[in-house]
Every structure is written in structure tokens, then in C-alpha cells.
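I have been asked to look over a protein record a colleague put together. Thanks in advance; the entry in question is below.
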Amino acid sequence: MKKTALYDKHLALGAKMVPFAGYEMPVSYKGILEEHHAVRNQMGIFDVSHMGEFIVRGKEAEALLQWLTTNDVSKLNIGDVQYSCFPNGKGGIVDDLLVYRLPEDQCNEGEKAYMLVVNASNIEKDWNWIQSQNCYDVRLIDISEQTSLMAVQGPKTVEALQSLTDIDLSSMKYYSFQKGTFAGVANVIVSATGYTGAGGFEIYVENKDASLVWDAIMSVAENHGIQAAGLGCRDTLRLEMGYCLYGNDIDDSTSPIEAGLGWITKFKKGDFVDKAYLENQKNNGTEKKLVGFIVDDKRPARHGYSIVDENGLTIGTVSSGSSSPSLGYPVGMGYVQMSHAAVGTKIWIDIRGKQVEASVCTLPFLKK
């Protein structure tokens, strides 16, 4: 198993470590509930250095990404970040990702540069997919192994972190980033992004600087209720916001249209992988759809549980489910037949042989 540059920090904090995407990662420190509420109400820090980062640079970098991804890369200015996905050429999704439009200080004349941030479990798969599609004047660089990533999330993040950086954090727009000095380290990328819906930043540094930056954040944030947070609460936080998790809610067999990701699928931008197939789904509908639901029981639905109708006939499958710490009741997402996808529709979850009533609802579960 691989270890991130912050592995010893996790052990020192008493983290419960688990294997995840080839890495030993902290699932929790003081408990998932405590960490969840810390992020929602104050601040939490996650080590997400297992994520993958690719640099895409060249005269045709934009053209390659326009072909590979569903969103419109041409809309990005330097300093912008975009959520997108890779269609797989068969109607499914290779991965979902973030696209960063980088400064051009390391580019030759006429070149553009981007950073792609991909899921840890898909690094090799994504790299091979991009390489297989690269018939453009583009250089690809995998910087995953030398890059550490910390996500500092929560409503007190700006106040707590401002003393560490020359970047004006309060003025940063959502889904933008800046390069600057952070905790005395130069050329750090600070990005106003995250996977919790609680606000905050993601901080990219070289592995050699990761421990220094982690310690600086923990030090200045002590008075703001910071909590080291693990993968356990990361999952409950993202589920409350209805954010898709690759491998659960989206995968190689689900399309972005079925998954409710039509908003990142831009048909007017020109040709891209699976454009005709996805446009047909948009215009003519799909057989299944990802929906959110609230369970009328104390027991949560779990990934893989069957969803049935009033007659006990299977109409879908749960993709994600958990008790919501913020709301106090179980919520979930799953794919159901279109006939049962309307908000308010009653469905039933087969929880260990007992059919428990649930109702389809709008996303996110936690309203801002």
C-alpha cells in the first residue's frame, strides 16, 4: 500500500487507517459524526493527496480537452476551475474530474496549459484513456506522485487561513484558484473548491512541503475549532449535497445524462466523445435516472440495495446511502426507472429482506 506524505501526521493524531485506492488513508480520527459537524459548523482538514494530477500543455491542449470532456473548456480563463467528466465512447463515464486553466508562464508561444484532477482509483485508467485519445500537439505530464493535496473545508476557513497567505482568500470566487505563497512556501495553488458543500479551499503543494503546510494550518486554526477529518465524514458530507461519487453513483455503465450531469454536458461546443449518443438521450429521454430519496425509517439504505415498487418489483438500485448527520435521518441516491423518478414518488428500499418506504426528493438534501 502507498502512503501519502502526511501518513505520520495521521498516525500521531490517532487516525484509524484503511486501504483506499491503493493508499493507506485515514477513515476517521475522533469519530465520523464529530468530524462531520466540525466541517459543517467550523472547519476540518482532509488529506486527499491520493488524488491524481495531470498537466496538459501544448498548442492543441484546449482541442484535446474539448474532445475528451463534456464541459466547454473554451470558457475557462486563467485561474478558472471547471467540473467535467470523460465519456468512455460507450455511453458511460471514464471518470469525473476538475479542469484547471493554468498560467502560461511555463508555456511556449501559442500554448495553453491545464491541470486535470482525477479520482485516486482511476489514475492509471484515466492516464491510459487520455493517452489513447491524444493525436494532438500536446504534452502530458503525470505529477500525481509528487503532489500533495489538502482540503480545508468549513465556514471558518477564510478567517483561519488568511494569515498564512498573501492571497486574498475572501475575494476568491467559487471554482477559481490562485498561485501564491502559503505558510512560507512559494508557488502553492490555492483553489476555492471542495467536496463538502461547506465552503473552503483545496491546497496543492509538493510532497516535500506537505508536513510544513499541514502543521501551519493546524497551528493557526486551533482557535477556530479545526478538526482533522477522514474519508468517513467526507462521504457523509458529499452525500448531503448530492455530489456523485465515482464507483457508486457514476461509472463506466452510467451516462452523464442519466446521472443528472446534463449541466456539464455542452452540446454547442463542437464534437466530443459520445456527443451523438448523449444528445439523443437528452432529446429522447433515458430508461433510468439518478434520484435522491429520503428513507422513512431509522435504518439507512446502502450501496447495492434493491429499490422496488409497491408490488415488490425491482425498479432500481441504491448507489449511495447513509444517515445524514446534519439532518438526522437517512438519505440516499439511486437509479430508478423513469416511471418512478418524479419528485414525491413513493419507492421502497429492500433493507435486508424488509421493504422500507422512501420518497423521491430534490437534491441537494441539505439546503443552503
Q: What stands out?
A: Residues 7-48+146-240 form a domain with the Gyrase A; domain 2 fold (CATH 3.30.1360.120).
